[in-house]
Design goal:
The protein has 6 helices and 8 strands, in the order βαβββαβαββααβα. It is of the alpha/beta class and 165 residues long. Strands 1, 2, 3, 4, 5 and 6 form a 6-stranded mixed beta sheet that branches. Strands 7-8 form a two-stranded antiparallel sheet. It is globular and about 50 Å long. It starts with a strand and ends with a helix. This is Flavodoxin domain-containing protein.
Length: 165
């Protein structure tokens, strides 16, 4: 396993970027936006990758794996995810022994662009009709936005980093 030299992330509405910044400040490891092609770690470098979830896929992960040695992954999503969900996400992405951490991010309807805005419409309609309290809360977040990012959620990632840097 190569030495971890960078944090690389993909963010759509800014929540994953915030987590990458928090991790960079706490660890002293530089963070890079995958979309900024000019300033990225050297190919083959050991990286911690953070990507936002969309339809069960960790955005940018395949691209990151082609370029670097991804040593751990943080998936940032809107809803809480139980441990069995994290295991399923790891299996779906064929992570094997690569650690996967789930971080609850948020939703900013005014920053969602393009097809992603259209993809959220069915969820908005579904949650509007539900009488379940959890779904009502989700509907409010989808309409008004919500931010669940927290430095406390980074504890497992920071513990992992202590032993791998």
């Amino acid at each position: 396993m190569k030495k971890l030299t960078a944090i690389v992330y993909t963010s759509h509405t800014g929540f994953t970027k915030r987590y990458a910044g928090m991790l960079a400040r706490a660890s002293g490891i530089p963070a890079y936006d995958l979309s900024q092609r000019k300033e990225l770690p050297a190919p083959g470098s050991g990286v911690l990758y953070l990507g936002w979830l969309c339809a069960g896929r960790i955005q940018g992960l395949a691209q990151a794996r082609k370029r670097w040695e991804v040593q751990a992954v943080c998936a940032v999503g809107l809803a809480p995810m139980p441990p069995e969900g994290v295991k399923g996400l790891a299996a779906a992405h064929r992570l094997g022994s690569t650690p996967l951490f789930y971080l609850r991010g948020g939703y900013a309807p005014d920053r969602v662009r393009g097809m992603y805005r259209l993809m959220m419409q069915p969820m908005l309609r579904m949650t509007a009709k539900s009488q379940e309290p959890e779904q009502r809360v989700m509907h409010t977040v989808l309409v008004q936005g919500g931010d669940f990012t927290s430095e406390k959620l980074l504890s497992p990632v920071l513990t992992w980093l202590e032993f791998h840097t």
